[in-house]
């Protein structure tokens, strides 16, 4: 490789990295299925005529000098929902990025970098998208996840719930109703960031409903239907194993649960059909052979009489 080209590559790489590191980040919040416009107004020197620019999403370039660049984190479907314009007016380089029909996974950092010979400038936005949490998945268990969780002597049980977090940060809540009186139950323990986990201490015999909520997505007794105790098995499980699988194509996470079951082996010695049977003892086999020989001899004797 030509040393001059090698030095050029190093200088170009340093310029790009420094361009990213000097982002002045602004925060903007929108909602799912809404449109948002990100406007960049970057100062450029007046004595420089040739400038290049690129726009990046989470530090990966997806638009450079008027051309979209394919990448895994900025797929073709997202490009079709994007519109980008760039103009230069004297000392100002103006770039406008419009995102239509926002998805929750469009959230992230969008930066614009202008490179003019040896100088560079940049701006970036942190796009936050409000979206509701995924429905809560709950199950009764008889082994406390927290050894210090005291059930007392009030015939109470443990209800364990999980849900995919939304934005703003979400939680899980339960309602119970008795004689048209509705009570609200907060979890004894609530943990997690991407996946929130909640533990409740409630009565299995009560009319209980649980669901995920946030400050922007509230629920009440009528709308809270992620978990309904009256339509769920009341048999607690001794062991709970949770498995999370993310479906990238559908952009949603599915929570499934699997339980350990004890199996017992049993020996079946019952005849299955007229032509087959299961024999487990040698003595029974000998008896059957003797009976067969006796019957065969009797038949031969009758024939020769």
Write up what this structure looks like:
Keywords: Membrane, Signal, Transmembrane, Transmembrane helix. Residues 1-21 form the signal peptide. This protein is of the alpha+beta class and 305 residues long. The chain folds into 2 domains: 3-130, Immunoglobulin-like, CATH 2.60.40.10; 137-258, Immunoglobulin-like, CATH 2.60.40. The protein is built from 3 helices and 19 strands. The protein has helices at residues 3-21, 76-80, 282-304, and strands at 25-31, 36-43, 52-57, 60-64, 67-68, 82-89, 92-99, 108-116, 119-130, 137-141, 157-164, 171-178, 181-185, 189-191, 195-202, 207-213, 227-228, 241-247, 252-258. The strands form 5 sheets. The chain has a 6-stranded mixed β-sheet, covered by helices on one side. The longest helix is centred in the C-terminal third of the chain and has 23 residues, at 282-304. The model is unreliable at 1-18 and 235-281 (pLDDT under 50).
